[in-house]
Amino acid sequence: MIIIVDYGMGNLRSVEKALMKVGADVKVSRDPDDVRHGERIVLPGVGAFGDAMDNLEKRGLAGVIREEVGAGKPFLGICLGLDLLFEESDEHGLHRGLGLLPGRVELLPTELKIPQIGWNQISSRKESRLLKGIPDGSSFYFVHSYAVVPNEESDILCTTDYGCTFVSAVERDNIAAFQFHPEKSSSLGLTILRNFAK
Amino acid sequence: MILFPAIDIQNGQCVRLRRGDFQDATVFSTDPVARAKQFEDEGAQALHVVDLDGARLGKMVNLSIVEEIAETVSIPVEYGGGIRTREDLVKIQEGPINRVVLGTSAVTDQALLLEAVSILGDKLVISVDAERGLVTTHGWQEKSSVSAVRFAGFLQGEGVHHILYTDIDRDGMMMGMNLDAVSELAKSVDIDIIASGGISDIIDLVHLKKLGLRNISSVIVGRALYEGKFTVSEARAILD
Predict the structure, then answer these.
(1) Which residues make Cβ contacts (< 8 Å) with residue A81, sequence separation at least 6?
(2) pLDDT (tens digit, 9 = 90+) per residue, B2-27?
(3) pLDDT digits over B106-145, tens only?
(4) Which of B71, B72, B74, B215 is the best substitution to test chain A (most A C-beta atoms within 10 A)?
(5) The model's pTM
(6) Chain A partners of B71 at a C-beta cutoff of 8 Å?
(7) ipTM, 2 decimals?
(8) Does residue A44 contact residue A81 with C-beta atoms inside 8 Å?
């Protein structure tokens, strides 16, 4: 069972439906026990970093996510769920994140319009099971103003150009996360979700 | 540039109007959700869905169908038609729809426009429907004296991120897009422009692309796709 963590940050139906489409057994839940006992964790979300961390703490989810993912449970972060993996963000004041990966979240250092909304290409920096069947240079759907800056080069899975080169996906062991929305990125997005669910 | 196939819903069916005339509808599918899925399967990267009954009656009529579309397809869905109140905005914001198009209501109710900017942020699209350069309202049934260019500048100042520009003289008429009008508008602002109205042939897409205007990010195509003038993948070959 894949647990989609519901912490009050945006509609989760699209993610749920997309995972169901690829044949996954999913449950949207705000119950820390489900996160503890589920086989895999998906952390989606849109909105402000600070509010998101507050909600995760308030609902008793931050601790259990740290424990379970720290112990090796497969984790997929989407958009805000990628940002939250890192140690801190300067989005509307400094906020601490889950701290599962070293690094921080910063405003996109681009001359182009923020937020970036629309389709953009990824180029992969390393091999990944999750990108199986995804040709390099494929396009995915982005909606974001901030991007992660990992301390460890080896955590970078993909980068994308948007008037700057930013990290559009990360992966380390059981942890993977994407800045774009696989659930809104047509068949290739579903391929990523299928790879994760397998 | 991103192609948005258009799905207009009237009486639960997928139709196309000519020049926005509610009486002049052609039914292209009786199942809008299936039609949406078909566009996705053909390679569409986004969908533009309009609740025509909503636009005509001034209240959301087919929201549940639009939400079903948004949940069924794995591409972003933009929706407009009949949104008039703050409650409408909150309700949509909580649902699966990715972008919300406000038209009439933004022209006639500035307080609502400000609320929409604050509730929806970058999910908000303001539709500027123009006839001979002037903004029209209420499903194109009424004309204002505001120029489209001036209105676009005002919207940019209010924090709107996207403008959907439709030339209603051309919409559904298969006469080609009014390129002068859309480029004049795009040059007058920095924000994102979605061009709509009149695309009838693949060559229209070539011309639009050739304008080379960076902030024209997307184009909405309706009747030309339904009548098979070109396919989604042929359009993407031009626009990508």
Answers:
(1) A42, A43, A44, A45, A177
(2) 999 999 999 999 999 888 788 899 99
(3) 777 888 999 999 999 989 999 998 888 888 876 556 667 7
(4) B74
(5) 0.90
(6) 13-14, 17
(7) 0.85
(8) yes
